[in-house]
Design brief:
The structure holds two protein chains of two kinds.
Chain A (H helix, E strand, L loop, with lengths): L2 H25 L3 H7 L2 H18 L1 H4 L33 H37 L3 H14 L2 H9 L7 H10 L3 H14 L3 H8 L4 H9 L4 H24 L11 H8 L8 H28 L7
Helix pairs in contact in A: 1-3, 2-14, 3-5, 3-14, 5-6, 5-8, 5-9, 5-12, 6-9, 10-11, 12-13, 12-14, 13-14
Chain B lengths: L5 E11 L6 E12 L4 E5 L6 H8 L8 E3 L4 E4 L2 E2 L5 H7 L4 E4 L13 H13 L3 H14 L5 H4 L9 H13 L5 E5 L7 H18 L2 E6 L2 H7 L2 E6 L2 E7 H6 L4 H8 L39 H5 L4 E4 L2 E4 L7 H6 L1
Helix pairs in contact in B: 3-4, 3-6, 4-6, 6-7
The chains are: A mainly alpha, B alpha/beta.
């Protein structure tokens, strides 16, 4: 590990700390922000998340080696952690730390993008079902029931079996398309109660159309539960990606993701545990951080606490 | 006589109740005219069909379970509102006929600033730019007497008091200079001093902008101070229609009489406050004959059998057999 990488790592840590203190300052200004800060794990989660995001963004500087490059085929196979390779090397003599850093890019962006797809779709379907009712609502909701009844991983396996090699954008899309069912139920329930509120009638009385009412008047009122379900959902998507990659149908090698790193190292768990331990730890940390932040957001954004 | 702005004939709005156990005839054959620039009071107890009448004028009845029966007519300057396509109807709502609701607390969207909500009306109906709509919002807030409109325009509804929210609701209704303003119990949720301010405001705006106002209320005191003509509603029907002065001078219908007697007065001797016995029957089962007869102090056998027509002289009509047989009133009293 060289000086430059070490300095960049310190920079990432500093960025994360800065992000944390800035968020604290910003949050302490509003009632919702103070409720958020009342959760001690939320601050830790926020720190972990901003650290990994900073590392992912600055990957070319933080990573001392090329993540896909086999350094020396013979002498550097499965080396334990050392000064030169802080997290060791894997079976193909690649630096684990460098792969972990670049893997953060892949894993985090898959998580975020797939969740974005899922949340958008779920919010729209839920809002339409909740607002339209009549035959639209039962139709959409039975479709959601079907979607929830089939295990997601099988759904994905079936879809992915259609391609020889799954391109990354398609993987993101597929994960997103199988992940919106829960969100749509949540949104529908909220919309059902919101559509009976007086301000929706008032908007109709002033001449607003259906689409305008759904998008401008109803959906913004559902923002809080949507944000929370997205925060909790990203962790789920990352675990799913790891699972798919572990099965060898996720992110195609040599592109590193935390999931396929574990898959690569699994055969050598007893002789070279570092190849699986560190990506596993990274996944666990990020998922826990997301859950902590999501939980805190749920409490912070609950409008019923606005009065208290 | 001038042409009426709004012509309502035989308006019937029914609701099919759950499990198909019956039909609630919430509005059952209401007819009236609204002339430019006048204020029409719509008075009655809770559950007599005032609000449903108001909502029906803009076809805001939730369908299902509600529906306006085919024989009904609502004409705005000769155009049949009931036959408008959805797009044309939306162009009428808020622009030609505007509605102010009873509950200013819940009728504003909590997640937008009041300025945005006023501006939205201008953007939807007049295609204003964001900037122009905002300027219009400030102008309207000033018109409705909001103190410090330039800063209040960025407030959220929860930052305003009830009276100020009602001013915002009125501002939203006025964006497009509507010809008809329907105010559905605009002061019921407010305390008395604010009530007076809001009514004063409505009067002033009507004089300035020359709109016709339909004022829905259960408070005869409000009607006496603001309305030119009054419709007294009971059980989904118009029981009496008259100019305000005539109605207060000489009510024809026993129901109106009862309502007037139930208003507490400062200038009369202190006695027990009068109340009309019983309550408004369920809309699924209006009584046969005259719908008021079970509660009427003058009722005789004819009232239970035959429904009286709206009868009377010129501008003052009532749906009561006493109009034909006035001697019965004195006989009883």
């Amino acid at each position: 590990m060289n000086i430059r990488a070490f300095a960049a790592l310190c920079g990432a840590l500093a960025c994360a700390l800065l992000a944390l203190t800035e968020t604290r300052k910003f949050a302490s200004m509003s009632a919702a922000g103070r409720r958020f800060l009342r959760h001690p794990p939320a601050a830790g989660g926020l720190f972990v998340l901003s650290f990994f995001v900073a590392v992912a963004v600055a990957a070319p500087w933080v990573a001392p080696y090329d993540p896909a490059h086999a350094l020396e085929i013979v002498s550097l196979q499965n080396q334990p952690p050392s000064l030169l390779h802080p997290l060791g090397t894997d079976l193909y003599s690649r630096d684990v730390w460098s792969r972990l850093v670049y893997g953060a890019r892949v894993s985090l962006s898959i998580g975020a993008l797939a969740m974005l797809v899922a949340v958008t779709l779920g919010a729209v379907v839920g809002a339409v079902a909740g607002y339209a009712r009549r035959w639209v609502d039962p139709l959409l909701m039975r479709a959601v029931d079907v979607g929830l009844a089939i295990p997601r991983i099988f759904l994905l396996l079936m879809a992915i079996a259609l391609w020889e090699r799954v391109p990354l954008p398609l993987l993101v899309l597929l994960i997103g398309l199988t992940g919106w069912f829960g969100t749509s139920r949540l949104v529908r329930a909220e919309v059902l109660s919101l559509r009976e509120r007086d301000f929706v009638l008032a908007a109709r009385a002033l001449g607003a159309g259906r689409r305008r009412i759904i998008l401008r008047h109803v959906l913004p009122n559902v923002a809080a539960p949507i944000i929370v379900s997205a925060a909790l959902g990203i962790g789920n998507v990352m675990l799913l990606e790891a699972g798919l990659s572990f099965l060898g149908i996720g992110v195609p090698p040599p592109l590193p993701s935390w999931g396929n790193m574990i898959a690569d190292g699994a055969a050598h768990l007893t002789t070279a545990p570092w190849t699986t331990l560190f990506p596993g730890l990274a996944i666990a940390l990020v998922v826990m951080a997301l859950n902590a932040v999501g939980d805190a957001l749920r409490d912070a954004l609950d409008p019923r606490k606005e009065m208290a | 006589m001038t042409e009426p702005l709004l012509r309502v004939r035989d308006l019937k709005t029914y609701f099919v109740t759950e499990r198909g156990s019956g039909t609630a005839r919430a509005v059952d054959g209401v007819s009236f005219d609204l002339f430019p620039g006048e204020t029409l009071g719509l008075v009655g107890e809770s559950g007599c069909g005032k609000t449903v009448t108001a909502l029906s004028l803009l076809r805001l009845i939730p369908e299902p379970p509600g529906h306006i029966l085919p024989g009904s007519t609502i004409e705005l300057e000769g155009r049949n509102v009931l036959a408008l396509a959805p797009r044309e109807l939306r162009a009428v709502r808020g622009a030609e006929i505007a509605l102010v609701f009873q509950e200013p607390m819940t009728s504003l969207n909590p997640v937008f600033t009041v300025g945005d909500q006023i501006a939205e009306v201008g953007i939807v109906h007049q295609g204003l730019s964001r900037r122009a709509a905002r300027a219009r919002a400030i102008e309207l807030l000033r018109l409705v007497g909001m103190p410090d409109p330039e800063t209040r325009v960025d407030d959220y509804p929860h930052q305003l008091s009830g009276g100020m929210r009602q001013r915002v609701m009125i501002a939203m209704a006025l964006v497009c200079h509507p010809k008809v303003l329907i105010a559905d119990e605009p002061t019921t949720a407010l305390d008395v001093t604010i009530q007076a301010q809001i009514l004063e405001l409505l009067k002033r705006l009507q004089a300035e902008l020359g709109m016709a106002v339909i004022l829905v209320t259960h408070d005869l005191g409000i009607v006496a101070g603001t309305a030119d003509r009054v419709l007294v509603m009971y059980a989904g029907q118009v029981m009496e229609a008259a100019r305000t002065v005539d109605l207060f001078a000489q009510p024809l219908h026993p129901y109106t009489e009862g309502l007037l007697a139930s208003v507490p007065r400062l200038d009369a001797q202190r006695t027990r406050l009068h109340s009309i016995p019983g309550q408004v029957p369920a809309a699924t089962a209006w009584p046969g004959g005259c719908r008021f007869h079970p509660r009427c102090p003058y009722a005789w056998d004819k009232c239970a059998v035959e429904e009286p027509p709206l009868a009377g002289t010129g501008t003052h009509v009532a749906r009561c057999w006493l109009v034909q047989e006035p001697e019965r009133r004195t006989a009883r009293a």
